[in-house]
Amino acid sequence: MFRPLRTATLIAVTLLPLAACSRGGERPRADLAASRVTTIGVNAYLWRATLDTLSFMPLLQTDSNGGVIVTDWYANPQNPGERLKVTVSILDQDLRADAVRVAALRQVNQGGQWVAAPVQAATVQKLEDIILTRARDLRRAAVAG
């Protein structure tokens, strides 16, 4: 017989202080600049930053649910004897340094034939850094605005 009264008292004692924290019926606002913004299956900041970073290259395939962006071959007008193809995979819904993986293929023109050539590791790392920096900038802008 005392148990329901004790339970009701315990609930009242526990929840009463929390009622003082309310804002008079206002609902808390969502954090629009959270590091995990996922209306498309992957982190929206990383996705947008990747598209911005690769905007100078023609896109061959984009999959926002799977987080994959594949470019077509791009030849720099200053160096038409070399071309590059990039694949970016966004691996997580969080804005994290290990959530982006870049793979690049490079070919050089030798005697009218495109031949595979090695890609410097620094090139791939630099692309990852540019994407991550842009994603952080987009998040900061969302917090400020």
Q: What would your notes on this structure say?
A:
By secondary structure, this protein is an alpha+beta fold. Helix content is 36%, strand content 25%. The protein has 3 helices and 6 strands; from the N terminus they run ααββββββα. The protein has helices spanning 2-19, 44-53, 121-144, and strands at 59-63, 68-71, 74-75, 82-90, 100-110, 113-117. Strands 1, 2, 3, 4, 5 and 6 form a 6-stranded antiparallel sheet that branches. Strand 3 (74-75) and strand 4 (82-90) form a beta hairpin. Helix 2 packs across helix 3. 18% of the residues are buried. Mean pLDDT is 83; it is low at 1-22.
**Percent helix:** 25-40%
Q: What proportion of the residues form beta strands (DSSP E)?
A: 15-25%
> Mean pLDDT, nearest integer?
83
Provide the structure class: alpha+beta
User: Total number of β-strand segments?
Assistant: 6
Shape: elongated
In the predicted model, the low-confidence regions spanning at least 5 consecutive residues are 1-22
Instruction: Name the quaternary structure.
Output: single chain
